[in-house]
Amino acid sequence: MFFSKPKEEEVSGQLEIDLIMSMVKAVNKVSLQKFELSLKEKPKIEKKMVVQWQGKMKVLRPTDCVYISVMMIQRPKAKDNGIFVLYLPESIAEMIGISAHVTRGDGEEGLLKACGEFLIEIGNYFKAYMLKLGYEDLQFSPPVNFTSKVDQLFDFYQTTKFQITFFRDEEKFLEFDVGMGPIKRIAQPQLNATT
Amino acid sequence: MWRILVVDDNPNNCMLLVSTLEDLANCDIAENGEDALVAYDKSLENKNPYHAILLDIAMPGIDGVEVLRRIRSKEQQNNVLPENAIPIFMVTAHKAPFMDSFNVGCDDYILKPIEPDKVIAKIKDRLDGSK
Fold first, then answer.
1. What chain B residue is nearest to A43 in terms of C-alpha separation?
2. A77-105 pLDDT, tens digit each
3. At the fourth CATH level, which superfamily is domain A2-190?
4. d(C-alpha A83, C-alpha A64), whole Å
5. What domains are there in chain B, each with its CATH number?
6. Cβ contacts (< 8 Å) between B115 and chain A: which residues?
7. CA distance A134 to B84
8. A47 touches B at CB < 8 Å
9. DSSP secondary structure code for residue B85 in this structure
């Protein structure tokens, strides 16, 4: 049995641009509000291939990031679905933990929860910016938080994503994967012609 | 009212943008990149700078990305801090130069055909935030 290769389906160009620009604004806003950090360096934006496994997106951590939070996005009316993946270096995750009053006693779970809450804050600003631009039906899943020890699969079926890397004093502050595409069908199995 | 420079070699696009922004801004029009740079320089000389520039990309002569590059380079020479740089919105039919434009320093990117509400929302958000 063979599987047909998933075909790239794209959302409108403007939506793709608005996703990126709103994400940049949201991260800048939360950094300023939470840490009084003005991220003056321009984030780096790259279009990258999604690593897929069994048709799903496999989230692999960058080597310099330890904590990962993921939220799925949906636009039910437009029938689009998307993903945010937040990759945090250890030092930044600790900074988030301190701001959320996470103590050593809370262990890694406490820090992971704080990272997820940080992603929700970014998501809320992102949603507000997108709402201003007329994207009304944006919905988020609760965050899934994990460390780099285990790779995880997510229901995001596009073949490309945007990677946005934010810097502070020329060092990586955090990294985001952002992607969206039409809700789709997992690749349909094709019968072998000889069977 | 804000002062906005609209740069596009297609007069119909210029008029559409000017009418979209009529309640928000007094707009000047430049029909090519050279005129845009002259208008930008003159506004600084007259100490009456624009609050924003809407910049087409595909134009004969100096294209929009090059205009953007030259303005950002002038700002750098004049030690203008990034937060005080003039907001520049690329308004174009082409999605491909988005990352180039972003890396050179555009503030936002609007694809044609223009959706008036979206243009207004983006400009208001950026300019209100800079007050």
1. B103
2. 888 889 999 999 999 999 999 999 987 77
3. CheC-like (3.40.1550.10)
4. 21
5. 2-110 (3.40.50.2300)
6. 14, 134
7. 28
8. yes
9. S
